[in-house]
Amino acid sequence: MNALELSDALWNGEVTTEEHHPFSVDNTLLEVAEDVGFVSSFANVSAFRTTDGLVLVDTGSAPLARLVHQAVRGWEGSPLRTAVYSHGHIDHVFGVPVFEEEAAANGWPAPTVVAHEAMPARFDRYVLTSGYNEVINQRQFQAPNLRWPTVYRYPDTTYRDRMDLDVGGLRLELHHARGETDDHTWTWVPDRRVLCCGDLFIWASPNAGNPQKVQRYPLDWARALRTMADLGAELMLPGHGVPLAGGERIRLALTETAELLESLHTQTVELMNSGARLDEIIHSVRAPAHLLERPYLRPVYDEPEFVVRNIWRLYGGWYDGNPANLKPAPDGAVAAELASLAGGAARLAARAGSLAARGDEASLRLAGHLAELACLADPSDPGLHRVRAEVFGRRALLEASTMSKGVFAWAASESARRAEGRA
Question: The whole model's pTM is what?
């Protein structure tokens, strides 16, 4: 089943994104329209033939860069003239050096990289916080050997709001939109009716809440989706997931993704304006159920609850409305005090275990608090860590999103190692 066939199967409900995750890759190129190639990778790469060489929208990740290059070269051998970065996440921006090596070996001009003007500052921040980014991405993707890069291929040309390119007779319109990032570019190729939307659409509930990453912009994101929906695109090539073909499908997918973000935004802001605390908002706001059932909006990567937190952070800062959290005691001191009141950390852990055994989400949420408190109160007790490993292992198994699975599985692994004396 090629990428377009899989797209049909997903749309029609014959396959689910739980079965075929949007981040699945095969590093093969499919010609999805005349002179338009699509490489399914992490992240995807869109390629356009022109009379003056190749244009790429996104270039893939460092570990897969040579496989992407091979896939492109199996389809077209002309020099890479221009590469457009949709945004600065590392899975999108590490393919150019392979093409530059090729250009140097063949005596071709080096390719030009185009991106939004905020991207250089992103790369600078990635270098500054490389250790932190390494840790959180190891946790998010359950990849303990992941190493965060500190050398980047910065863009040669940047723009602010819009930039038009003409490469070998191919017209491309580059548009800026804040969404998953502040440096996002979506690319419209009007003569081909092709839309390269980057990560503004990824066959999943939008990654607008990632709990370990910097600010996202849900309302700006929704506005960009509605603008793209009005273009009349006949083919949409996303940064993750499979291509989507057909004007009506594309319009529906984009407008309903916008509707989901707008609903979360409206509900959250209304509660903020009423004076509600973050805790109340998190447990009150609900995404429209009919939207989460769509094959392209399942919460298999990020989840609406995390988007709510990000909206709070955007408008309300880090204070959550609980005065005890403004200048809190250390977590370990609170845990020790509660353990003392309960009759010891072991009693907290025992209760956590019994709650987890019930298996429902509400009980597991409570069990997580108690297991964490028990281990904070007595971090050297392997028995407490066995309970913590069990609780968060159960949580990881029941979660659908990559974000939640990553955090819970990492916590379970931490405690499993400590319980066995390996940490």
Answer: 0.96
